[in-house]
């Protein structure tokens, strides 16, 4: 089916160009239904969402190395409860150098401020999705998000194509390579912790992913200033389709919101922390012991925002299903086997749709929450 998707259904408009044109009202294509609009800047009423001191768990990973999950039991417990109750947590002392994190973010910020003709030379299509883009799904007439992005493959090596990575700024390809290498290592360490916390051997989840033959890709999000941030979203509500997401947020501008108990909590990033969240594939492997959670991004009228989402994914063509050790008569397998290739096709066709994909897969006899 993807082979028929050569072009986007309408002419692509770069959101950054709209923002820089100085318009005072956003086009109708970006105005969300009333039920999806965020509540922005209500601090004068004392009811600003996410500003009541609630934040996702912040976890210190000192002691976690490639060779051992040397974390104190209390830290292991905190990660376990974050995966079960939040689906999100922040990590510090994670082994990735702060200077590399800053360099990666600011290199990409520089890319988005290059002349349009340079960026356009990397424009993507629905067929490959790789490159410079401004929309996710291919639904004609869809309400769009207020963001541009760049998507690229890091693993497997068969999909890693330097020619599809920006040649400018000068250091861009080198920085992407170094950053990707470090985040693959960090993803592997976190997977071991998740395995052990489920009562499994430390390499169990990784092996179910395909061992060393995993997939990894990077999506850089650019959220330009928006004159009416209360009418739109930078990224609509969704759960991540892959395995784990390791997000480098903008250190100056909050924007990520996580859904918890029916309300949206704005994540306050800690300095040089990564935000880690469970994707749908780990929810499936864990038989829903771990939860992928809906999240979205709000935009800002005064400041642009750049974030880097690194997706640590299973090998794309092996069936993913609940691991046998977590299946019992009391808790049968909640999901049928499905490859990640089949799974993400749904996302590519439909765009972000909350948690409708992973929920629709559940066996009809399942009544779990």
From TrEMBL:
Residues 213-314 form the Fe2OG dioxygenase domain. SUPFAM superfamilies: Clavaminate synthase-like. The keyword Iron applies. InterPro entries: DIOX_N, IPNS-like_FE2OG_OXY, IPNS-like_sf, Oxoglu/Fe-dep_dioxygenase_dom, Plant_2OG-oxidoreductases. Keywords: Iron, Metal-binding, Oxidoreductase. PROSITE patterns: FE2OG_OXY. The keyword Transmembrane helix does not apply. PANTHER family: OXOGLUTARATE/IRON-DEPENDENT DIOXYGENASE (PTHR47991). Belongs to the iron/ascorbate-dependent oxidoreductase family. This is Fe2OG dioxygenase domain-containing protein. The lineage of its organism: Eukaryota, Viridiplantae, Streptophyta, Embryophyta, Tracheophyta.
């Amino acid at each position: 089916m993807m082979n028929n998707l050569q072009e986007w259904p309408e002419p692509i408009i770069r959101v950054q160009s709209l923002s820089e044109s100085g318009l005072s009202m956003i086009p109708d294509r970006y105005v969300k239904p009333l039920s999806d609009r965020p509540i922005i800047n209500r601090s004068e009423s004392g009811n600003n969402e996410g500003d009541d001191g609630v934040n996702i768990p912040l976890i210190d990973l000192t002691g976690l190395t490639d060779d051992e999950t040397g974390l104190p039991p209390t830290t292991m417990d905190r990660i376990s409860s974050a995966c079960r109750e939040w689906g999100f947590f922040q990590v510090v002392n994670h082994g990735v150098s702060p200077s590399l994190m800053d360099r990666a973010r600011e290199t990409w910020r520089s890319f988005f401020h290059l002349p349009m003709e340079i960026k356009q030379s990397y424009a993507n299509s629905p067929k490959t999705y790789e490159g410079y883009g401004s929309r996710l799904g291919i639904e004609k007439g869809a309400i769009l998000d207020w963001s541009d992005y760049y998507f690229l493959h890091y693993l497997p090596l068969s999909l890693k194509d330097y020619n599809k990575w920006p040649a400018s700024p000068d250091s861009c390809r080198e920085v992407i390579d170094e950053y990707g290498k470090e985040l693959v290592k960090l993803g592997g360490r976190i997977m071991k912790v998740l395995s052990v916390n489920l009562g499994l051997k430390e390499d169990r989840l990784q092996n179910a992913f395909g061992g060393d033959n995993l997939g990894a890709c990077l999506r850089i999000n650019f959220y330009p200033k928006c004159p009416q941030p209360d009418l739109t979203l930078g990224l609509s509500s969704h759960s991540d389709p892959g395995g784990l997401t390791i997000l480098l947020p903008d250190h100056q501008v909050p924007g990520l919101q996580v859904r918890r108990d029916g309300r949206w909590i704005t994540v306050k990033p800690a300095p040089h922390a990564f935000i880690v969240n469970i994707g749908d594939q780990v929810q499936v492997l864990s038989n829903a012991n771990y939860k992928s959670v809906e999240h979205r991004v709000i935009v800002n009228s005064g400041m642009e925002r750049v974030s880097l989402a690194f997706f640590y994914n299973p090998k794309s063509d092996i069936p993913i299903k609940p691991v046998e050790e977590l299946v019992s008569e009391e808790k049968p397998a909640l999901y049928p086997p499905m490859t990640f290739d089949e799974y993400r096709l749904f996302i590519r066709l439909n765009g972000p749709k909350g948690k409708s994909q992973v929920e629709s897969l559940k066996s009809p006899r399942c009544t779990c929450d």
